[in-house]
Amino acid sequence: MRIRLKEFNGVAVWKWVTNDDSCGICRMPFDASCSECRYPGDQCPVLHGECRHCFHEHCIMKWINSQQTNKLCPMCRGEWKSLP
Amino acid sequence: MSSLKPKEIDFNEQWSIVLGTVRSVISMGRFGQTDRAIWQERFFDIYYLCVATPDSHAERLYEETKKFLEDHCKSMKKDIAESDQNMLSIYVKYWTEYKTGSDWLNTLYAYLNTHYVKKRQANDMDTNYQPFECNNDTIDPPLVEIGEMALDCWTKIIIEPLKDRLVKLLLEQIHLDRICECVNQTTIKGVIMSFVDVCQHRKLNILELYEKSFESPLLQATGEYYREEGNRCLAKLDCIQYMRKILLLIDDEEFRSRKFLNPTSYSKVYNECLQRLVCDHFDTFKSECNELIIKEDLDALRNMYKLLKPTHIGINYMVEKLQDNIARIGHEKVQSLKGENLSTLFVETLLELHTKYMNVIKETYANDPEFVSSLDKACATIVNMKYGNRLSAKAPELLAHYCDSLLRKSSKAATDSEIEEKLLSSITIFKYLDDKDYFQRFYQKMLARRLINQQSISIDAEEFMVTKLKQICGYEFTGKLARMFQDIKVSDDLNIKFLEYVRSELSSSSSSQNQTMTNLLGLDFNIYVLQQNSWPVAQTITNTFILPHLLEKPLHMFEAFYGKKYSGRKLCWMYNLSNAEIRMTHLDRSYFVTMGTYQMAVLLQFNDHQQLTLTEIEEAIKINIKELEKQVLSLIDAKFLIGNTSELTMNSVISINFDYKSKRTKFKIPLISQKEANHDSESSQKAIEEDRKFYLQAVIVRIMKARKVLKHNSLIEEVITQSKQRFLPSIHIIKKCIEILIDKQYLERRTNDEYSYIA
C-alpha cells in the first residue's frame, strides 16, 4: 500500500425520511418548515401516521385538534394514528 | 405718640412741612438731612393728610408731590443739559441720587400708595374698563405709586428731551473703548442701565425705552464699525490671518457687551459682529474652505468652524466639502490597493481613514453631529462604490474575508482581546454596507469552512462576532449562524457517543474499552451532522460515488448508529465538504496530506496501478466527469500525479509521481483552484439575487397583509424601509417581486397604481 487513509472527517446533512416531497396540509416541502415555524429541522419535525402519510407535526396536530369527533387523516380519511 | 384718630388738617400748612422732608429725601440729603424722628413724623403727617376730616387731602397731596417732582427734575435737567463735557457723569450722579431717593420716597408715602393709589386703581379697573376706548388722550394719566411716578417724571422730563445727546455721547464713548482709549466704565454702564431701570415698574415693554432709544442705534453703530474694520483687515490679511484676527475682535466685543450693556443685548451685538465680519465675507471663507481641508490646516478650520457655526449661513458648506474630500481620498486609497492581502489592506485602510477623521472631527469640529454624519456618508459611498462593471460592491466580500482571516487559526499569534478589538472595528465598516446580505452570505460560507475544517481560532471569538452582528441586524440575520454553532456542538457530542457505540459493537471483551477509533476501524473518524437549511451546502445531485473500501464500514456503522438515535431521519453525505488525511509512503519519506474526499478516492486508485486513464478512474469511483477532471487536475497541480497531455481527455494517461519532494511532511492541498473560487463568488451573487427576491416577496406579503390596500409608491417606500437593514433593493427588483406575487395570486391590481391583498 503506497497510500494509506489515516483519517476521515465526514460531513453529512440529515433529512426527514418521508414518502412525499411536501406536507399535504401546508404544501411546504419537508425540507422546509411548516408555515408557523421560522426554521426547519429539530424544531419542526415530521410525523408519520400508520396510514403511511406524513405531515409536519405542527400541521397534523393542528388539524387533529380542530376535528370534533373522529380524528381522520386528511389524505386518506382513515383514522389517524401516529407512528412513534 | 399722638392718636391715630383722623383730624381736621390745614393742607397748605402741613404740606410745606412735608415738602421740606420730601426735598431732602429725593436728593439724598443735598437739601438738608432727615433724621429718624423726622422721618417717623412725616410718615404720620402723610397718614393724617390722607385720613383728614371732613375730606381727605390724598388727592391734593398726590398732585402737589407730582408737581414738586416735576419741578425737581426740570432743575436737574437744566444742570445736565448745560454741562457740556461732563454730561454723562453729571447725568449718572443725579440719576444715582434720584433713583435711591425715589425708592425712599416710595416708602415714606406707603400709606398714600396703599390706601389711595391702590384703591383708586382697583376702582378704575371696575368702572372705567373700556376695552374699545383705551389710550384716549383726554383721559388723565392713570394713578401710579409715588416711586413709579418719580421715575416717570425722570423719563418724561430728563430722558426724552436729552436722549439723543446722551446716546450720541454713549456711542462715542463705546467707540473710544473699541479703539482702546480709556473710558469711565461705571459712568457709561450707569447711563445705559438707567434706560432699563427707569422702566422697572412697568408691566409691559420694560425694555422698550432701552431698545428703541439706545440699543438699536448701538447695533447700527456696531455694524458700521465692524463693516469698516472687516474690510480694513481683509485688505491686508489673508483668510487664515483674518479669521484669527476677527475671533479676537469678537471676543473683545463680547467682553465689552458684558462691561456696558443689559444682558439681553449680548447676543444681538454678537450676531451683529458675526453678520458684518463673517456673513458679509462668506465668499472669502467659501473660496478658502476647500483648500484648507485639502491642506488639512486644522487650526484654520477650527477657527472657520467657530465663526460659521453660530451664523445663519451655518456649516453646511464645510460639511459638504469635508464629505467630498473624505470620499475622494477614500476612493483613491481603495483603488490603489493591490497585493495578496487585499481584504486586510482594504479594511485597515478604511479604518485608518475613519479613525483619522473621527479624531479630526473631535479636535476640530467639536464632535459636531453634522460632521460625524458627513463622515458616515463619505464612508458609505466609499464602501458601497461599485468599481468597473461589477453589479455589486466588493466590500461585503472583502470584509467577510477580513473577518475570516481574524477568526481562522494562523501562525500570527494574537491575544483574544486583540482579536475582539479588531472584530469590533470591522463592525464599524459593516455598518456602512448597503448589501449586508452579501456579507452574510460570504461570512456564512467562510464560517462553515472554519467550523468543518476545525480552523476556528475559538468559539468565544466566533460567538462574539455573531452577537455583534445580531445587535445590528437582528435575530433573523444571524439565526443561521447561531444554528451552525449548535450543530457543531451536537456533532462533538455525537462523535463521543459514536466511539462508545463502536467499542460496544466491535469489541467483545471489556478490556478493550480504551481502544481508539483507529484501533477499531482502521482510521480516525469524525463526523459533522448538519441541518440542511442552516449551512451553505448545495443540494447533492444523485450520488453514484463508490466509496473507498476502507470507508464503507465506518460510514454504514455511523448511519446505523444515527438511525437508532434519531428515528425518522436519514443522512446524506456531503463528500465535497468532507476531507481526509492520507499518508504517502512511496516517496523519499512519509508525507501526511489533508485533502478532499474525491481527491483521496482518486489517489487511492494508484495503490494498485502505476498509471490509469481518466476513463478507468471514472469507472472505478463513478463521479461526474466534470467533477473528476477538476479533482485530477488539482492532484496534478499538487504534483502527486502526472498527466501525459496538457489538456485532459478521456484517454489521458495519468501516472503516479514517484519523484515527489516537499520540505514539509504534513500539509494540506486546496480543494479547488483559484479560478474556481472566482466562479464561486459569481455563482453566489446569483444565489443572493434569488434570496433577495424571496425576502422581498415575504416583506411585500407582510406589508399587504397588514394594510390590505396600498398605493404603488407607498408600497415601494415601505418595502425599502423594511429591508434597509439588509440591503438597498432597487425599484426594478421590487416591481418584479410585485409582479411575481400578482401571478401567484397573493395580490391584485385594483386601479393603475393601487394593489390589494388577496386573503
Q: In words, what does this structure look like?
A:
The complex is a heterodimer of chains A (84) and B (759). Chain A has one helix and three strands. With 84 residues, chain A is an alpha+beta fold. Chain A is elongated. Chain B has 759 residues and is mainly alpha-helical. Chain B folds into five domains: 11-129 and 141-206, Cullin Repeats (5 helical Cullin repeat like, Up-down Bundle), CATH 1.20.1310.10; 315-473, Cullin Repeats (5 helical Cullin repeat like, Up-down Bundle); 495-565, no CATH class; 579-672, Cullin, Chain C, Domain 2 (Ribosomal Protein S5, domain 2, 2-Layer Sandwich), CATH 3.30.230; 677-757, Winged helix-like DNA-binding domain superfamily/Winged helix DNA-binding domain (Arc Repressor Mutant, subunit A), CATH 1.10.10.10. Chain B is built from 28 helices and eleven strands. In chain B, a hairpin with a 4-residue loop joins strand 10 and strand 11. Chain B is elongated. The mean pLDDT of chain B is 87. Chain A binds chain B through residues 1-17, 31-32, 38-42, 45-46, 48, 84, and chain B through 452-454, 476, 479, 483, 523-535, 537, 548, 550-551, 554-555, 558, 562, 566-574, 577-586, 592, 597, 600, 603-604, 606-607, 656. Strand 1 of chain A pairs antiparallel with strand 3 (579-584) of chain B.
